[in-house]
Amino acid sequence: MTQSSQATDGLCSVPALLQRNAQKFGSKAAYREKEFGIWQSWTWAETEKEIEALALGFINLGVNEGDFIAIIGRNRPYFYWAMVAAQSVGAVPVPLYNDASAEEMAYVMEHCGARFVVCEDQEQVDKVIEIQDGLHQFEHMIYVDPRGLRKYDHHALHRFVDIQAQGRATYYEWIEDLKARREKLTYDSTCVMLYTSGTTGKPKGVVLSNRNIIETAKNASEFDNLNAGDEILAYLPMAWVGDFIFSVGQAYWTGFCTNCPESPETMMTDLREIGPTYYFAPPRIFETQLTNVMIRMEDASPFKKRLFDYFMAHAKRVGPAILDGKSVNAWDRLKYKLGELAIYGPLKNTLGFSRVRVGYTAGEAIGPEIFEFYRSLGINLKQLYGQTEASVFITVQPDGEVRADTVGIPSKGVEIRIADNGEIFYRSEGTFVEYYKNAESTASTKDAEGWVATGDAGFFEPDTGHLRIIDRAKDVGAMADGSLFAPKYVENKLKFYPDILEAVLFGNGKDRCVAFINIDLTAVGNWAERNNIAYASYQELAGHPKVLASIQSHVEEVNKSVAQDEMLSGCQVHRFVILHKELDADDGEMTRTRKVRRVIVADKFKDIIEALYDGSPQISTKTEVTYEDGRKGSISATLTIIDAKVQPVTTQKVAAE
What we know:
five-stranded mixed β-sheet; Rossmann fold; single chain
């Protein structure tokens, strides 16, 4: 690996970038937030003053260098300011998932030893109060929204605006201390600590330095030609590394504007109003948007439906080529322009994508049809491959080399090697410093030369140099006959169907594969309404004979596709069940970033797995669930087990190594 790069022009920290932006882009919008239906705006100069006041307030409250400050809330300027203010005083921001349970928060806050918490509202305050007796370092909590908190004990509970006011009032007392702390920051100072999703155990605190964040942000911004004129919509969890690199790293490096929606419920409306030029969403968001489009078209007039189908068929044929700047004849270009006026333009406007210049998706594989749909509209949607430990970027797709089945080439400054067993390793300036208070896991993940084990299996295509991901390395196994077992490969194919929300495949060491499936309640519910099918709950709809038949047809189509792959043909689904409940993070079945916790799911529903393998036609089961208010309960159901047709395997199976 090349020698570590050094910060240029003294820009060795996010607070240093803030100072530069306040001077260089002083009158330009840095943040917008929609509140009570109106967009509020702060320039870079105003943002610098807001953060300075909060940082002075932190010092006045007793925040020391090296302290950890937990930050809990949805995407709002106040919490981005809190992260940069924490960095400015030499503290370490630790954003948490705002939908996490009190118990989940307790683990993270006690593990890092957070002395201070900045949170949003009464709900988050109550969670911290519930667990505060077990938090040995916790001292003060700061809240943004005062509703419902007037009669609380305020000895250790403070309003955000009051801390800022105290900072302004004590300006001359603490400003030299603040300047001294800022000047101490180096490229190797800790920028943020983010906790992994913890699919196989307790979350680990990933320590990322200023070097990790700034170098990664700089390289990624240059790759996509991002600049101060770009706009993003910040709506993904602030505890997720993707939001941090986009909404802090790249925003502060380039000086572009970060827009915060009013609420999750208004996100799509706010997206349309902002019209971001730079946009990121996990595949599920793109899938949901496409499902909603198709649902609306089913309800459209016959003429509109025919017009939509005609122009979308043309877009599918020539749209990606036009987007990539390839040769397309004049007639096809003209017809595409007509489609832009009649269909593509209005549709992009409805989706909020009219101005998207660069769009990314990552986290899971996206269906080729879904990927192709957006690119055919002229939306420059690309895939990237990344991890928290890499400060996101490991591979990216260059313009003109975008495909649904690869994740692109190594990002600038990233080296990648593939081990003999197929596991992917990388090293870069973005490589994390360590797992906090976990030297053993750090050593097992990152070696002395800086190579990080991703835990994913994949290979480089010899002709294109693009990386293809097969599965999680730990999930790749072997069937009883020695053929390869790669569950993610099949699960992703199943999830390409709009009415399948989640799929979990089992079969390692077995003679055949079986699967759990969650239906997408929005898509299937809309289908039920159009067909006058009444249902009272998810469970009732999931067990409807027509739904079972529809999912069976999808499974059998996937089996046909899987059978054509010589290495993975043994992974066809022989039997499946539509679960009586959605897999849920509150029930521990998924992470907050919607990754399935396979071991937990397998253990929790082991009676259903046994029934899938012993030939039972149905299974009666009882499952504990967690309600939104934290109460525990249980649901009982009798599930129908469906046999799916599998294809004969004519090719020779390849034994897994």
